[in-house]
Amino acid sequence: MSVTEPAADHLLDVRGLSVAFTRKGRRDVRAVDGVSFTVDAGQTMGLVGESGSGKSVTSLAVMGLLPKRGVRVGGEVHFDGDDLLTLPPERMRDIRGRDIAMVFQDPMSSLNPVVPIGIQVTEVLHRHQDLRGDAARTAATESLARVGIPDPTRRLKEYPHQLSGGMRQRALIAMALACRPRLLIADEPTTALDVTIQAQILELLKELVRDSGAALVMITHDLGVIAGLCDTVHVMYGGRVVESAGRRELFAEPRHPYTGGLLASVPRLDAPRGAPLHPIPGSPTDLLPWSEGCAFAPRCPNRVEPCTESPPALESAGGRELRCYNPLVAAEEVPA
Amino acid sequence: MSATEGAAAERHRVPEPGEPQRHRRAVSAEDTLLTVRGLEVYFPIKSGVVFDRVVGWVKAVDGVDLDVPRGSTVGLVGESGCGKTTLGRSVLRLVEPTGGTVTFDGIDVGSLAGEDLRRIRRRMQMIFQDPMASLDPRQSVESVLTEPRRAHGIERGEATTVAQLLDLVGLPASAASRYPHEFSGGQRQRIGIARAIALEPEMIIADEPVSALDVSIQAQVVNLLEELQDRLGLTYVVIAHDLAVVRHIADVVAVMYLGGIVEQAPSDALYSTPYHPYTKALMSAVPIPDPVIEDTRERILLSGDLPSPANPPPGCRFHTRCPYRQPTRCDDERPVLREIVTGHTVACHWAEQIHSGEITPRPSAVVGAVIDAAPPATVPIAGDPTITTLGPPPGI
Can you give the pTM of this predicted structure? Predict the structure, then answer.
């Protein structure tokens, strides 16, 4: 896999992360297969992919939130010098919520519907900073105010159903940020929201990263969200990273046929109207097992002979990493 | 019966090569298939244990006028809770309108009952958002596609019809004997589309037809819908929250906010020069997959959330969030839709002044500035715009 030195200068250093779901008497499902990436403080990293690409399982594995049974996790996840995968559960519980926090997609199902917002936010502060009573309430009010919730004192007493979708997502972000974590993982934080609310939440996340110097891992299927937010982007397909690059390079010049296909298949507001869409044929479930070749080969317009014979390796060239035998254009040929 | 079948056959006929192709973008204003006038759908809010008192109304759709020319595509966009789904359903009378009229091909849909209503529903069909929830998991595809025809008494040569339908939506004929769970999301949506065209309808209302699908699949379904329109001469009302998808597919787009249409124009005009502040904000909020554009474009951030339709703000519905709000008139007087440019209607008092730059948005609402989530202090708290305590929001 990637031959980086065990350096402590990355905040999060994921190396060869694999997650397999084991089933009795059946073949394992390799949801994540040798994923490596690093995230530095103050940086925003994007993980893009469609359903089944393994992006959410990657984040759950980093957080140590996968069930213990029926799951085999391999590789290393270094956070601040510790390998999170080998850490005893008590230590992990100290880190989770304090140093690493997560925001989930659906704010309704990730908040407890029968507990007021205030108790859910103070619970984090109580657990990690030992704040109680008035001190905890003040801190909770502050964290709600920080994410732009109007009238936070009143909101603390309210239940999740009394808040709108955007407010719930803000409350969830407030909970995640209550202990000022150094790494925030956001798994499709705006997918369930309307565009105007999505714009508010994205602006909020940008601002929080800028002000707190925390690192952000943004998981999404929306290339538009990535384009406006992330410094580096990893495109996942079938459990592996197929292309990684800085966002400008990636969008200006996608090299992997999957990345290019994704960009060509979304209608854009700025494109001339009537421009035809070029969908990727097939569906994300038409996977070739990586052991037999490239998982994207069945849908790939650029497929060549070796694609279905052996899996391409992730190779770095010109500041990006690419897993493809027959990429779209050669970077050298295109003037910068 | 034979006359209608003949007409249906004519509609479904694939044009001969060489014959002049009907250009679906060219739409004559005279031939209007669907006319909606002053449509209102109010849901009662009930209270009390013994007596079911009605204590208020959720005005899901509140006075909507809409014309859908035959063979065209009208897009309805807006955020969740703006009433777009309710509007679509009330056209088919899946939800009973409380006021206004719906005229389909000269027939007043609201006055129909029983068999007449059933017969007209054959001519307007619906495609639903979630292809998993809208297909019976225990019904084979063949059964899904033959049932509507049987119910409407137009059974004939079923095996061939099913094969033809599947072929039209790009599924193999072998799919007929399979069940919904055996298909992927995109394929299921194709089955939903096949079911809608099984009755050879003239109009299809598609409620969020692609939003539940993966990005790479959305384009396949959008292309399929366009292809079917060209082949079968269908009229579409496409309801969606994704502005880019609507722009791609629709000829005319209506933007809804809190139960009313705030702006309506041909797709190109609307997207190139939006007049209404809400449309402007909506468009600037759509992320564009291009970092260069994302880094430089101006974005209008709306403060707060959609107010509760149970207690809509007085005056202009949008004034609580509008970055261009002007004192008193916006708060007091509800703007009506008026034509600014031919074919381009806007419900805003200040559309011209905003367009000419005479009125500028509050600086805090333009991007780069601090997020302005708290409602401006001067706004009267109209049932607090951020909470929805009364009843479920419409469209859920």
Answer: 0.82
